[in-house]
């Protein structure tokens, strides 16, 4: 993650500043090192800014996966605030000890953080709250599978489960709109209109009844999902399409945005 890379760079900058101050053998209150103290404070501020960004991302993840990581980010932020306020009254050795403490807690944070969930950035509770209740359990389980597959590097499988979510959600919206426009239609008849269709075909049916989905590049993503799913399940004699993490994240993002587009709270 970019935030952690920046935070490690901040710690390296702090180490360099502390090494220079150790050679000077001067107190941190000394006016002659004002510029160096400012550089230390700037590094601490940048470190805290990135911690706050990580904390914000963690707060959209299920607390059972993120609670401990959130606590660690807050502990480091508290330590940074303490140093920032009291730095002029510290010795160089004490400042080094406190920076080392930050480094240790940051290492614990990296070890505990649910990086997969953080990369995917899916606020599943928000999405489920938008959906009709009959869909929630099924979609929730599919998102669990998406996250497991992504974490294992099984990107084809992650994309395939996203395709399943889209079929479920688009199919439900099609059903609702058809029922709304023609209440006399039998439910099984509506279901039969889209049974066995690909995502692209369901999208076409949705457009035919006036349901507009505005996510840019949606048709391209539908083709990507089909290119991934069909050869993964049925042998076609053609080389397999092997998507990477960026493609998987793109499809997850598409899935999230389509749900938001279809079901505005």
Radius of gyration: 26 Å
Low-pLDDT segments: 231-235
State which percent range the strand residues make up.
Answer: under 5%
Using the alpha-carbon principal axes, give the shape: elongated
Give the helix tally: 12
CA(first)-CA(last) distance: 31 Å
User: Helical proportion?
Assistant: over 70%
CATH C-level name of the largest domain: Mainly Alpha
Q: How many beta-strand runs?
A: 0
CATH architecture of the largest domain: Up-down Bundle
User: Could you spell the SSE succession in H and E letters?
Assistant: HHHHHHHHHHHH
The whole-number mean of residue pLDDT values reads 85
CATH topology call of the largest domain: Four Helix Bundle (Hemerythrin (Met), subunit A)
Structural class: mainly alpha
> What's the structural domain tally?
2
> Largest sheet, described in full?
none
Report on the architecture of this protein.
The protein is mainly α and 265 residues long. The protein folds into two domains: 2-113, Four Helix Bundle (Hemerythrin (Met), subunit A), CATH 1.20.120; 122-262, Up-down Bundle (Four Helix Bundle (Hemerythrin (Met), subunit A)), CATH 1.20.120. Helix content is 77%, strand content 0%. It has twelve helices and no strands. The protein has helices at 2-24, 34-58, 63-86, 92-112, 115-120, 124-130, 133-151, 155-181, 187-194, 199-208, 218-233, 245-262. α3 packs antiparallel against α4 (92-112) and α8 (155-181) runs parallel beside α12 (245-262). The longest helix has 27 residues, at 155-181. The two termini are 31 Å apart.
């Amino acid at each position: 993650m970019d935030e952690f890379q920046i935070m490690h760079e901040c710690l390296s900058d702090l180490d360099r500043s502390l090494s220079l101050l150790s050679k000077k053998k001067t107190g941190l209150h000394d006016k002659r090192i004002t510029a160096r103290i400012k550089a230390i404070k700037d590094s601490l501020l940048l470190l805290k800014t990135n911690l706050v960004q990580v904390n914000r991302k963690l707060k959209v993840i299920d607390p059972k996966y993120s609670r401990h990581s959130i606590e660690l980010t807050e502990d480091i932020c508290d330590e940074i605030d303490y140093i920032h306020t009291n730095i002029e009254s510290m010795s160089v050795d004490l400042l080094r000890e406190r920076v080392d403490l930050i480094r240790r807690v940051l290492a614990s944070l990296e070890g505990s953080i649910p990086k997969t969930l953080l990369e995917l950035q899916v606020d599943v509770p928000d999405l489920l709250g938008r959906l009709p209740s009959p869909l929630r359990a099924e979609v929730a389980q599919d998102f669990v599978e998406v996250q497991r597959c992504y974490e294992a590097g099984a990107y084809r499988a992650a994309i395939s489960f996203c395709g399943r979510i889209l079929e479920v959600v688009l199919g439900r919206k099609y059903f609702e709109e058809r029922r709304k426009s023609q209440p006399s239609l039998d439910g099984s008849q509506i279901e039969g209109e889209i049974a066995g269709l690909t995502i692209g075909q369901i999208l076409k049916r949705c457009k035919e009844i006036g349901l507009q989905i505005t996510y840019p590049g949606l048709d391209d993503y539908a083709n990507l999902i089909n290119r991934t799913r069909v050869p993964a399940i049925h042998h076609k004699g053609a080389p397999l399409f092997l998507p990477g993490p960026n493609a998987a994240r793109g499809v997850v993002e598409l899935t999230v945005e389509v749900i938001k587009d279809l079901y505005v709270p």
